[in-house]
Amino acid sequence: MPQIRFPKTKSQILIFSCMAVSISLFGCTSNSQKSVPLAELKRSKEGMVVSAHPLASEAGKLMLEKGGNAVDAAVATAFAISVVEPFSAGIGGGGFLLLGTPPENSETQQYKIRALDFRERAPKAATRNMYLNEKGEVDKRASLDGHLAVGVPGTVARLYNVHKYYGKLSWSELLKPAIRYARDGFEVSDIFVSRLERRLEVINKNPAARDIFTKDGEVYQPGDLLIQTDKAQTLETIAKNPQSFYTGKIAEAIATDMAKAGGLITLEDLKDYTPIWREPICGKFREARVCAMPPPSSGGVHLLQILNIVGETNLQKWGRENPDTIHLLTEAMRVAYADRSKYLGDPDFVEVPVKELTSLSYAQKRREEINLEKVRRSSEVEPVSPEVLRSHIWESPDTTHLTVVDAERNVISMTYTINGSFGAGVVTAGTGILLNNEMDDFAVAPGVPNLYGLVGGEANAIAPRKTPLSSMTPTIVTENGRLIMATGAPGGSTIITTVLQVVLNVLEYQMNAAEAVSAPRFHHQWLPDKLMLETGGFSEVTVNELKQRGHNVVMRRGWGNANVIVMDETGILEGAADPRGEGEAMGSGE
After folding, report:
1. Could you count the other beta carbons within 10 Å of the beta carbon of residue 364?
2. What CATH class is the domain 14-279+398-587?
3. Are 46 and 590 in contact (CB under 8 A)?
4. Cα dihedral sign for 261, 266, 267, 272?
């Protein structure tokens, strides 16, 4: 196989963005378009931090320059995000993290990759039918709005856990930037305002949330200063004692608020929460080793499944925007998301056939079903039976993302969330903690789509202390013991396909970091049966050809807010944040 080649920076390109994708996935219908330039490319010989907000990236960079490592920088960045991007992620939520440490001898050893599951979990009192009314019908807002929608948060436990084992700087040092941003305030952006406008009605129903995130019930305007005094005090408490979130005064405040408002989380739920170290899912694509999250995230399984279906196909020769390329990848996406609906769930509760779904023989079977000249409707694509799947065991699988690489080439790829914009729309009084609405990521009833249009079944049914299925796909790619890239993205059901395309952009199309996150995207998730193409990103000829093959094409403004760090052949780090968002890459020592 040819070695991966890293290109030089190209001239600017134009794409179109949509800042409103976290509402209904296929509901972004505005015709207004905003063109944005190619993402800014940052380079560094030392370390690199990329996140969804410049202040958060700055917090991480500061830790690297204080002598901290990738873990220290990631922890500081994550806490900062909870302050400056509260609508997407924070200490009231959870997620997944990949940690990569370089081998002592890159010629004979691989990077060591570890996966940490700090996803929210169902409270002990959760029941299978908790969101059904007396008629057995789904109450569509009960799993999205209010205290009943909240899963047990895991972010604080994760940050403390990973720092305890791998951090260099003191714990309290890492929280200083976040405390400062909360206490002194920061200027809110257009993105913050747009998210707030969408959830204003729900937020105004919760007095604590209303007091923090609105001006007497009205929306903040871009440039206004948002001060979060309660959150600053909470972060100061966590800086002194992180266990307070699960066993101390913070835990008591959460449990008391839950009991008053009809939520299910108790002191026992918080005390019993423990993040779980899991084995990552790794596979080969060309000469590269691609590692991503295992279940209860579906991201790693389906990223590898789609790459396996691509197989030896020379996509570079076909061209990234060739109708054949888009058609093949779309049909592979359709298969993967169909399998997701049946087989993926919490591996501590159900048996997830990872080996079968990520086997090369199974990928070959599904590839043979694809007709390159004609689309298969999603009604014709079903998950294969368990018996057929077992025959393919191969013996010889509104969110935010941050990526960090330090001078020693330790790497963190972390995706975490409170689910929808502003989560459940509720804040625990006196704490400033905005809580998640992660219970919606369970299958509240068979065949009923969630916020992102994803359909699930028995494997993802609600159960006490079970973890809901996720699409989060933090990813680390290495080759022959050296780092190639690390990436991830928010975006609900679009996460997997966004990460897939960023990975292919680097490995197959030899793009640099800025080009890889800026290139136009497409997405299909089996149901609804629609091929989503980014407006302005594909030629009229390509769009018409896809329609002629039978694709139900829907044009949408850009989605996702990916970021990526790529290491070139000389060891220089390239970092870029998605131009569809407001993030920034920052190199240390520059």
Report:
1. 13
2. alpha beta
3. yes
4. negative
Residue 416: its H or E element: strand 411-417
Indicate the helix (H) or strand (E) that contains 186: strand 186-187
Rounded Cα–Cα distance for residues 62 and 557 (Å): 35
- Across 13-45, b (16+ Cβ under 10 Å) vs e yields eebbbbbbbbbebbebeeeeeeebebbebbbbe
Cα 457 from Cα 437, distance rounded (Å): 19
Residue count of the chain: 590
End-to-end CA distance of the chain: 35
Measure the CA–CA gap between 426 and 316, rounded to whole angstroms.
Answer: 47
* Coil, strand or helix at 29: coil
Does 399 qualify as catalytic in the annotation?
yes
Q: Would you state the structure tokens that stand for residue 523, as one six-digit string?
A: 């997405």
Mean pLDDT, contiguous 10-residue spans, the chain (590 residues): 33 32 35 59 98 98 98 98 97 98 88 98 97 90 96 98 97 98 98 96 98 97 98 98 98 98 98 97 97 98 98 96 97 95 94 96 95 88 54 50 98 97 97 97 78 73 96 97 97 95 98 97 94 95 97 94 96 97 92
What is the distance, to the nearest Å, from the Cα of residue 324 to the centroid of all Cα atoms in its chain?
Answer: 28
Three-state secondary-structure class, residue 144:
coil
User: What's the rounded Cα separation, in Å, for the pair 357 and 142?
Assistant: 33
Whether the CB-CB separation of 114 and 277 falls below 8 Å is answered with: yes
Its pTM stands at: 0.91
Give me the helices (H) in 262-371, please: 267-272, 299-310, 315-318, 323-343, 354-357, 360-368
User: Alpha-carbon dihedral of residues 492, 25, 363, 377, nearest 10 degrees?
Assistant: 160
Q: Give long-range contacts, CB 8 A cutoff, 24+ apart: 99-104.
A: 99/70, 99/71, 99/162, 99/166, 99/410, 99/411, 99/412, 100/291, 100/410, 100/411, 100/412, 100/413, 100/476, 100/478, 100/483, 100/486, 101/410, 102/408, 102/409, 102/410, 102/481, 102/482, 102/483, 103/481
Locate all alpha helices (DSSP H) within 369-463, ordered by sequence. Answer: 386-390
Selecting among 266, 330, 399, 400, the annotated active-site residue is: 399
